[in-house]
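[step 3/7] fold_predict: job queued, chain A
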Amino acid sequence: MTDLAMQKDRFIASGSNQAINAVQNIVLEINNELNEHLEVINENTSEIQANYGYISQLDSKITKLNERLDNIQLFLRGLAKADDLIKEAKSETSYHIQHLTSKEKRLFLVLYTNPNKAFSYKDLVEKLGLPENLVTEYISSMIEKGVPLIKTYLNGRSYYSIDKQFRDYQTKTNLLKITQQVLVA
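[step 4/7] structure written:
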């Protein structure tokens, strides 16, 4: 081969080496850019996962708050209903008591015959000889039936007594059979 042919082969070989090197450089640049994008995607994924965790915690707290609000609303409705019952009971002519069972009557008599004392569940259990769950059930039932019981709290315990006006009304109308009449002259 001649010297010229060898130079031509070298030029073609060096050109192809340059082309290969250029392609390799381009592939390396693309690879570096893809790695950078992958890092950004991984950072975003971690951030999204952290945000999802926070949102889940907030959702749980919101659910608990909703439950508490529902309980407060039910409690306030109960208070409003109890206030209405007490207002009704204060008016002598508006006592509308549903029929009491014999056990409820026994409980009523314990409260009625001790006007200056408020009874805890424990006191009523001892007086009546009934289990506490029945006593609590009877008290709830009496309140639902319209008996105006006064509930007070002392040292975290509930105490019950009968409303004084209701007691006086019961004494006049049921025991003494006294009714008040207005005479027009």
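[step 5/7] annotate
The chain has five helices and three strands.
Strands lie at 119-120, 149-154, 157-162.
exit 0
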